[in-house]
User: Fold this.
Amino acid sequence: MLERIITKIKSLIHGFGLDHFPWEVMFFSIIITSYVLMIEVKFVGWEKSSLKKIIKFDKSTRSDFICWVMDTFNISNVFGFVLSFGVFYFLVGLIQKNFGLNLITHIANPYLQAAIIFIAGDFKNYVRHYAFHKSKILWELHQFHHSATHFNVLTRQRVHFLDPEISRFFDVMVFVLLGSPIYSYIAVRIFKEAHQLIIHSALTSDWGFIGKYILVSPAAHRLHHSTEERHYNKNMGNTFIFWDRLFGTYHPAEPIKNIGLPENKFNKDGYFKDLWKCIIGATNILFHRNKMNILKKENK
Assistant:
């Protein structure tokens, strides 16, 4: 009886063309998010928890929830691919196909391979994050993530759909230099995702020595989202905080009054209008630069 039900479900999935839907990614996201939500309630209590914020469902949390749904069901990737005309995907594919040093193959130990790629990948994430803050065009997209007026676990997925598309260029650099590890460790995936959810949660711990010298703590990342000018562009590490110490972007964790943007134009007109505001802002900067370059050439 059970086998017949499973066969029927598979048949329906095939019939609706959902064979290639990333079911594993969806279930992974739901399970990890649910687990972190429960952990958060245990440590901060119901009143401060993300679950209560999600039930309250104010405009900022509403955007977080939509982003989480879009990411979990792979809709944001489809949006990004279609609305960018697949340009980023195509160009990155060309780079992967025609270039590749595969330096990691010179290391025989698969565990050492995975460790090196994990650390190199996190350094890449630091560089990418730094670029999205320093480039005016990229900031127009990335500011959507910073527009959350309070943290909840789902804020982790609050990104503009063009953000990961552009990030492909940073991701491919590690692939070109090192190649891919022989094994994919589920434990590493769980750790990275759980860590990202935790540092966007209601937890505010600085994690002591570990938070100062090794991992990005909830307090350190909360400071990164602070509205105070002295905190801008600080603590940009993804997993490891020591990149910030090495490159001068570290700021010791301290109590934060407010998170978000000083002049926040988001969380007022709805999710899709907020995304459109980012695109308009980036386009205006791009065309303004092109116009200025043309004027400079004409004046010469």
